[in-house]
Amino acid sequence: xxxxTFLTDFGTKDGYVAQMKGVASSxxxxxxxxxxxxxxxxxxxxxxxxxxxTAPFFPLGTIHVAVVDPGVGTERKGLIVTTKKQxxxxxxxxxxxxxxxxxxxxxxxxxxxxxYMIHPLSRTFHGRDIFAPVAAYIARGVPFGEIGTPTxxxxxxxxxxxxxxxxxxxxEVIYVDRFGNLIxxxxxxILPGEVEQKKITVxxxxxxxxxxxxxxxxxxxxxxxxxxxxxxxxxxxxxxxQGNAQQILGINVDAxxxxxxx
Length: 262
Known about the structure:
By secondary structure, the chain is an alpha+beta fold. The protein contains six helices and 15 strands.
């Protein structure tokens, strides 16, 4: 059975997600699954990160619909992105591109055929009227080239990775989860050797926190203590055991960090 996932910033109070699923289920018998509908409103980069972190755990052939779409109703295009493992559907605002690179060998199609859209077409809800039906028709086996036209022109979005700069590692916060853990763009494989035995000083702007321990998981720090650890996405995280690092430290997404190891 084919699977279609949905990722949006719609929340669950209103009927928007249900409408998308209703459209998809009227076209295809694919299994419909949620990634999340709690992306921060209009935050394309956050939605792109969650899709990037989640898509690899789905089976071959899964179709992902990602709709964080502040440009809905404008001239921005709708896209199908095929990869060697899965298929991505959504607006042309960069949200699909990090995952496309991760999954590999991607080809981009601009959605052009009105036959595979819902009419009358809403100017404010392309998730329901374009992206959900397109995903469902793909699940039914309609060829990509019948729904859209190959294109080399699309909005790009890349996640830059942290780097070594002399005696420090520099990076930034790319995501804050619901626990307030500050997930950085610093991959574990650029950390210094024997990092488990080191203390880390972190500088964010004009603020500085000294001697933060690196631990293998949260429970190796005392409740309320700052810690660094490697999260499930293999990036360095700055956290507070049983606390909220974002609130306690006042650090948010896009904050630049400098790390010193001792």
